[in-house]
Amino acid sequence: MAVRSRLLAAGFRYRLHRRDLPGNPDIALPKYKIVFFVHGCFWHQHPNCKKKTIPKQNFAFWEKKLAGNVHRDSAAYRELEKLGWKPVIVWECEVKKRPAGVIEKIERAIIGNHRSTGNVRQDSKIEEGATLA
């Protein structure tokens, strides 16, 4: 919710849970063709995260289930890129440990996409060096 309110305050309009896009992204900025996935570290197996641990009970089931999630995510990201969208992953532990870092990640994605697509907003409150916080 904090990320969404800051995006609105900065003048960005977004859509939630676009079912018409691969992977059903959590937040989509259609004008900039950027989508954000807010992933749980356990369910999406965040690399190098302590929450990535697979339960010992019924290990084979969980290993297959979680590997399937990761595979499905990767396929969705590739499809989005083919369609011209830039997928950005925000991890659960990032939001909890360092929310300001998540905002910086979003800013970098928006600014980077401005440059690559030439879709620069003159009225945007986010510019190089500015923050959403």
Textual characterization of the structure:
43% of the residues lie in helices and 13% in strands. The protein has four helices and four strands, in the order αβββαβαα. It has a four-stranded mixed beta sheet with strand order 1-2-3-4. β2 (27-29) and β3 form a beta hairpin. The model is unreliable at 119-133 (pLDDT under 50).
In short, what is this structure?
By secondary structure, the protein is α+β, with helices and mostly antiparallel strands. The chain contains four helices and four strands; from the N terminus they run αβββαβαα.
Write the layout of secondary structure elements.
Blueprint: H1 2-9, E1 15-16, E2 27-29, E3 34-39, H2 59-82, E4 86-91, H3 92-97, H4 99-117
Parallel strand pairs: 3-4
Antiparallel strand pairs: 1-2, 2-3
Keywords:
single chain; 133 residues; alpha+beta; four-stranded mixed β-sheet; 4 helices; 43% helix; globular
